[in-house]
Amino acid sequence: MQEEESYLQVTLQLQPTVDKDKNDYPLPKDRSLTFSQYPQTGLEVKRRVQDKFHIPLCLQTIYFNSFVLEDNQELRNIHFREGDTLTVSYTTHGDLSTVQDIINAITTVSGQLESIKESILEGSLTQEEYDQVLDYNFVDHINESFVRTTPDIVKVHHLYFIHNFGADVFLKIKRLLAGIPWEKLPFKLQCLEHAALKYFWSLSSTIGVRCYLFNFPDLVELIASSILRIKAIPNEKLSIANMHYAYLDGYYFVVRSAITIMYSGIGTMANLAELIEFREEIASMPNLLDQMTSIMLCPQFGIVNTHLGLSTLFALSFSPSCHHKIASPLIIERIMEASSHKRLASKGTVTEHNSTMINYFISVYLALVSPMLSRKEEFHSLLLQVISHMQQFLQKTNYEAIHQAEVKTGHEWSTIKPILCLVYRTIDEYNDIPLLPELYRTSLQVGLISLQEITLASDFKEIVENEGLHDYLMCLPWYMRDDELREEAEVLYRLVQAKIKTSCPPTLVNLIKGYLATNAGFTLQELMSPSFIETLEQRLTYN
Predict the structure, then answer these.
(1) Where do the Ubiquitin-like domain residues begin and end (predicted)?
(2) How far apart are CA 370 and CA 347, in angstroms?
(3) CATH number at residue 71
(4) Is the pTM of this model over 0.70?
């Protein structure tokens, strides 16, 4: 007889910290939470509250009697019982009425767009139909609600917008617009596409709620369609011929609109690439990376487009399974040309921070894909140029300057495992390419300066603890192959020790794993996986 599954149900008492009359926060009538298994931590309870009541994690304080449930608080000794009451104190200082107005407006626009789509495609859209489409007020409201406000309020607005199907409506609009060729898309509808992109750019930037993007399976394809709207050709201006509705708009505005839409698409794609679940799809999207690297060399696009495009490649390079899709001789030649002083100067005002981040993204990307570059003959003619680019970057900067540039440009780290795997790498001793040792060594230097820089991040300790990487960082000086690299690893050792303030030595198991990663052909991913022993036995049996 199958054992009956047990459940725990608790009741929530919800207490807003502001006047309810001023900020009406719509909540489900059912104030209970049901757990199929006993919750492990306070964070697990908060996530359930966020999912059901749309209250962001960062705005919740949960009490059990007088006891505050901290995020990392283990709940096994608290002994919740069926029917217990938890008090959730939260802030509702968002402007939800405006967000609801946006949802209402785009729902209306979606219906209008469906009714005139055939006229647009046939080229028979009348002035009257054109004038009736779009109430531009909601475009300004998008900026106010999702861009020009504090991060906590943005999270509130996103959760309300998503749970009330606003994001679904915007995606429906984006699908309709994606089915209309650019030359047949009137300017007002180009502005509508831009509004949708601005929303998804904001959502993809918002840590804590952007996980909801996984609910939209065709999102990457739709964002890519905006980037691919008009083919970019290196060193040439965008050309748009045969605009059907030029008499309604004006050519100049149509070109500027295309540039703005492609820019917003690239910004959104750069954020999506940070999420491992999207990387394979982005890397596999036909013509996307060719277009993005062409845009870097297109005179009408500014330095921010170059920065965002390289940020996308940088994030994609964190997944080894993407390397064969994101690296080609043409892409490498283009990004190194895009980073040249002459090319950057042609983009207008270039700050030291912009230049540092652009060359940093390229150097880390090249270092991470370098094993593939050394294996494939088509890249061998570029190896000297690749090594030279990384070495010039290392000579001109230090880890403190990189960190300052990251702070200025708003770049944030969520993982350091790919960079750590970069420095725990075995040189291919069976490869007789003359430049291989120098490529290997320079890649290690890029990895070390990256790790040094990451130690200055405000959440460095949290990242290291979450990913269980402390021992691997502290072991590095033992595995470096020459004095200069060892000195850099010792600098990292001291930085980690100062930030984490621990005197615990690395465990013997992790010391052995580090040795295997740097001397026995294992990857650090293999060694850190739960199936490590099985992998080790298979490798030893094979050898």
Answers:
(1) 40-95
(2) 29
(3) 3.10.20.90
(4) yes
Question: What letter represents residue 394's amino acid?
Answer: L
Q: Is residue 408 domain-resident?
A: yes
Q: Which two tokens stand for residue 438?
A: 């120098």
Task: Specify whether 102 is located in the same domain as 229.
Answer: yes
Q: Where are the alpha helices (DSSP H) in 164-218?
A: 166-178, 187-205
Q: How buried is 213 (Cβ within 10 angstroms: 0-12 exposed, 13-18 middle, 19+ buried)?
A: buried
Which residues of the chain are modeled with pLDDT < 50?
1-5, 21-22, 251, 540, 542-543
Verify that 82 and 230 share a domain, yes or no.
no
Q: CA 280, CA 118: separation in Å to the nearest integer? A: 35
Write out the residue range of the structural domain in which residue 110 sits: 96-328
Q: Which amino acid is at 159?
A: L
Last residue of a domain, one of 284, 313, 328: 328
pLDDT in tens, 18-32: 655 445 566 677 888
Residues 357 and 432 in one domain: yes
Alpha carbon distances (Å) from 67 to 42, 369, 380: 11, 50, 63
Is the torsion defined by CA of 488, 491, 493, 496 positive or negative? negative
Q: Tokens in use for 18? A: 């502001």
**Pairing mode, strands 67-68 and 60-64:** antiparallel
pLDDT tens string 199-219:
999 999 988 788 889 989 999
